[in-house]
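$ ./design --mode recover --in tokens.txt
reading tokens...
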């Protein structure tokens, strides 16, 4: 289980998360919704230990292990993986080079090149990218849709246990949304990862059978409930009494 308790996070002297509390069971999907500028991307990046975000106090634990003082590399080794809104472009390093070095790093031994190539070919096919994409620089000069698929290629290659999706659905057209939704569902069915999904739209959620929903406002969780909360939010908005006024029933 991932436990986040009384978390306070600052960036550039600004307190963004304040008394942030959230628990996610292993294999559970937690959807995080809330108005713009309330700290959704901040919690995603703080969980990955992005260097711009400083954990001032509070606790982040994964299956009882305290994560507060780990480096981003150590967090990655534990199987945390962030798929963001704007995938980073890295010129000069190919997908194959990066993935091979990460897999070697995670397993602590040299990668079997033939097995790696075979899996990479299969995964390219699965996510719908030509196999030449193995040798493309990471997300460099790729279209928006290709970048998202390229991130999914990394997902299936690295098989993370804890996936954070920060508005992966933003800017996707209907067809791309279907591809991304179906692939995420396939990944979930294959590996049963724990997931934190930040989204403004219910569209991506229809690919998942069950999930919980938490609402964030002003840097803290104000409510956690069942998936029914999504339709309540769509009907009444975040600031309605129906949502903000009712009790947190986690
Ligand atoms: P959301 O993802 O919910 O829209 P963010 O987590 O990106 O919101 O940002 C929450 C608030 O923190 C915003 O006011 C934003 O300007 C501020 N913020 C986020 N990251 C930084 C940073 N690195 N430095 C300074 N302020 C930041
Ligand atoms: Mg954001």
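writing sequence...
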């Amino acid at each position: 289980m991932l436990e986040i308790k009384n978390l306070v996070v600052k960036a550039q002297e600004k307190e963004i998360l304040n008394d942030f509390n959230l628990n996610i069971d292993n294999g559970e999907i937690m959807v995080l919704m809330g108005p713009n500028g309330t700290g959704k991307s901040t919690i995603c990046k703080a969980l990955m230990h992005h260097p711009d975000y400083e954990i001032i106090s509070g606790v982040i634990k994964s299956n009882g292990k305290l994560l507060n003082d780990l480096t981003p590399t150590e967090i990655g080794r534990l199987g945390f993986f962030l798929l963001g809104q704007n995938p980073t472009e890295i010129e000069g390093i190919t997908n194959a080079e990066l993935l091979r070095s990460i897999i070697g790093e995670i397993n602590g031994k040299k990668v079997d090149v033939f097995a790696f190539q075979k899996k990479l070919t299969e995964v390219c096919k699965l996510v719908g990218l030509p196999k030449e994409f193995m040798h493309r620089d990471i997300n460099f000069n790729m279209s928006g849709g290709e970048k998202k698929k390229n991130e999914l290629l990394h997902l299936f290659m690295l098989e993370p246990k804890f996936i954070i999706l920060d508005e992966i659905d933003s800017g996707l057209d209907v067809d791309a949304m279907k591809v991304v939704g179906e692939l995420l569902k396939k990944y979930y069915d294959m590996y049963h990862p724990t997931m934190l999904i930040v989204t403004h739209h219910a569209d991506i959620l229809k690919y998942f059978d069950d999930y919980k929903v938490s609402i964030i406002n002003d840097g803290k969780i104000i409510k956690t409930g069942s998936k029914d909360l999504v339709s309540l939010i769509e009907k009444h908005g975040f600031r309605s009494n129906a949502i903000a006024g009712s009790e947190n029933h986690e």
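exit 0
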